[in-house]
Structures are given as structure tokens and as C-alpha cells.
């Protein structure tokens, strides 16, 4: 897909040219020590680093709004907002001012490392230190020790198994009930709020909210009915904390059978891959005549092989050759074959040849003009379709809003996008442009978790060169595969938790 730069290019140019400097050395101290580095630039002797890359090292998800040139970093329970060419940093609703403004170039927003760390130090559970003289950043990561929760429905109640990586002393555990919530506090517990899983499909606990405090972790569960504190017992073994909750009423057998049927439907056994464009629609044409339709088909075929071989799932493709397929046909195909996930694969292009990186889209109303234009260009394929009039007025976002309201997969789609984006950002060694949303027609009618992955810019000479290489396309397939695998494992842990009974 293409996007037009226009005003944006103009905004980019006046940025101060930063002098390249020696990289900042990074040492990550966890269970073992890893090293890494951050590119550095200097302005009047002050060292700047690209903030998105710093966030990656902190393993903090980021969201970039290209129109406002703002980056949001999710640090545990806090949101840190940084704006290009601006000295103000927002943390939640608090405002901090750096002694000088951030810089901006095609690598994104650059922050003066020293001052920026000063601001975020109070908001990250992991201690940070920066040695200015040696240009060395030391991050202490505490590895997680709480992985997730499975709720098992028993005849006389519910057993919560909190999976841990070490044994917790019972004196470090506490349980209380308040206002329809059950709270479990684990002193010394560390969890990743974005990754922790919960087998929530039981009838007592509606949802789980995980919170990381500086000294402890808290899991709170919304209760579907009243329970009493004296009906709860707590214990801990080597790799589990067990919370058993007695409820008085027994569950009838037929309810359990229905529940099980319902859950089986959610197993991810069929995946639909949708290589964009094809046939008379080449998609975008990039550097050296490289065609989007060819690149994405090849990546999809490689991904299919990996999914079939390693996950043993059925994989169907909306096209397996260079032929034209309409957008509605694609979603109809996915629904007809009862796909459990839908992954549309595209490549990007931009008039600005320096633009590069990967991004993953969910269906939604575009948050920026740039994202809206991307969707509009992807949707423009319908001009090749005979029945284009059926689509109605595309500029009207009501259709997409309506479809969003009707579909219950928005949350799963966002999660799937997060898993895929995280994996490709880590494994491809290119820039992560984040998770975005826009009104892609191909995602509208698809009744399953669905995302659209942009695997790189074929308009960027360097990225086009990489995309031409089979080895790199294999690497992309591998990275998307890993994201799908992690998502599948996590969602099935939730579903399967209660099947074993
Ligand atoms: Zn495309």
C-alpha cells in the first residue's frame, strides 16, 4: 500500500541535524546479563537516543501517532507520552519538562537519555542507571514469577491455580473480598500485565485484572455471585498458588456439557491466510519494480508451511497463485471455512523512500490521517471488482463502525495484533511502527480475530533489497508464525483449562 506524505515531509525537514555519536552501550541484568546498544546522536554534547528503541529494550509496548508525532510508551500501569520537537513529557496526567526539546528524524523521536531516564525512573519497576562518562545504560529486569491463572470448575466450587516460577511462602499471600471483587495479593510477585493469561470461562469469576505494584502483585477477579471469605482457602506449592473457593450450589451436568461444547468451538484449528492483491491488481509497485502481490504471496506460502508443520493446524489461503480475488470474496471464504484466525499480509510503500518498518493493523476507525489513507489505498482494490457498487460509500465510516459494534472479536484481534507485532518487531531487525487501526474492508466481514500485517516498505531501497531475499522472507514468515503461536497457546490455555475436568 502507498501513502502520501505532503505536509508531513515539510514538518520533518526543519528538525535539527543531529551529529552522529558513539552508541550507548546497554547492559540488561536479569537472571543472566545481556548486552545491547542504542544508536546515539549529540546536540551540544548532550546524548540523544531513539525513544522507541529504548522502549523496546524496556520491553514496553509503544503506540505511535504519526500525525501528532507522538509516541505513547506503556510502562507497566503508566503511559508515557513523548512528542517530536517538544520538551514536555506526560506520564499519565502529570507533566514533566525536559531541559531541552526532543529531536525527530526518520528513526522517530529522539530523547536526551539522561533527562528522560530521570523522568521515567519513578514509573518503572525495573531500576535504571546511566553512566554518563562511560555512556552506558544499565537496566535491571526482574524476570516474571507469576505466569497466569487457570480456573477449574469443580462440583462444589472453583479452584484457581496461579502458575508461578517459584514457591511463595503462605505468609506472603493474602485474600480479601470487597464490593463484588476477590483480591489475591502476592508479596514479591512479579507479573507482566500484558502477557498474563486467565482461564476466565468459568461461571464464578467473570474477569481478572492484574496489577503490578512495586513490592507486590495483585490479581483481582470480578465475582458473578456473592461468596464469603470463610469459603476460601489458600495454599502454595512449588510452582502454584492454589485458591479454592467453595460455592454452595452444584453445577448441573448439562450445563457443564454445554460449557465444554462452547469452549471447543474456540480452539484455533483453522487459520486463514490472505495474501493481499493478485492478478490484475499488483498492489503497490516498489523499488526496482518489485510487486507487492508477489512478495506477500511468497511470505504467505512460507507461513502456511510453518503453521501446518509445527502447529498441526489447517491453513487455507484466499489465493494460492497470482489471481485476482475481491475483498468480499476473501472474507466470505474465511467465514465459509470456519476460520479461527484471519491474517492478511501486505507490503507498504511511501513517497518518502526513507520510510521503513513493520506495522500491524486491526479493524477500527483510523486514529490518524495517515492511517486512514493507508486503509483507503488498500480498499481501492475494489475498483478492480465488478460489483464495487455493493460496497456503498467507502468514505462513510459508519459501515465500519456498525461492523465493529456487531463483532465480538475486537479484543481478540487487538491481542493477536499485539502478539504478531511484538514478534516481528523483535525478530526482523527493522523499525516497529506499532499497532494501528483503520477501516480495512477485507477485515470488515470476517467473523474471527483478524489482523492485517504490513511486512515492510518496498519503496525503501534497503528494505526492498531485504524483501527480495528468500532468507528474509522466510524470517518474516517465521516471525509472524511465532506471534500466532504465542497467541494460540495463550488463548487455548484459557479455553483448555476447564476441559480437563
Ligand atoms: Zn496491499
Give structural attributes.
binds zinc ion, alpha+beta, disordered C terminus, globular, single chain, seven-stranded mixed sheet, about 500 residues, Immunoglobulin-like
What does this structure look like?
The protein has 501 residues and is of the alpha+beta class. It has three domains: 2-140, Copper amine oxidase-like, N-terminal domain (Copper Amine Oxidase, Chain A, domain 1, 2-Layer Sandwich), CATH 3.30.457; 146-251, Immunoglobulin-like (Sandwich), CATH 2.60.40.790; 270-492, Aminopeptidase. It has twelve helices and 28 strands. It has helices at 7-12, 51-57, 113-120, 253-264, 292-311, 327-336, 369-379, 398-406, 410-427, 441-444, 461-468, 470-496, and strands spanning 2-3, 19-29, 33-43, 46-50, 62-65, 70-75, 78-83, 88-91, 94-97, 103-105, 108-112, 128-131, 136-140, 146-154, 157-164, 173-178, 181-187, 197-199, 205-212, 216-223, 232-237, 240-246, 270-275, 314-317, 341-350, 358-363, 432-438, 450-457. The strands form five sheets. Strands 1, 23, 24, 25, 26, 27 and 28 form a seven-stranded mixed β-sheet that branches. Strands 10-11-4-3-2-13-12 form a seven-stranded mixed β-sheet. Strands 5-6-7-8-9 form a five-stranded antiparallel β-sheet, covered by helices on one side. Helix 5 crosses helix 12 and helix 9 (410-427) packs across helix 12. The relative contact order is 0.12. The model is unreliable at 2-16, 387-396 and 497-501 (pLDDT under 50). Residues 1, 276-277, 283, 292, 346, 378 line the site of zinc ion (ZN).
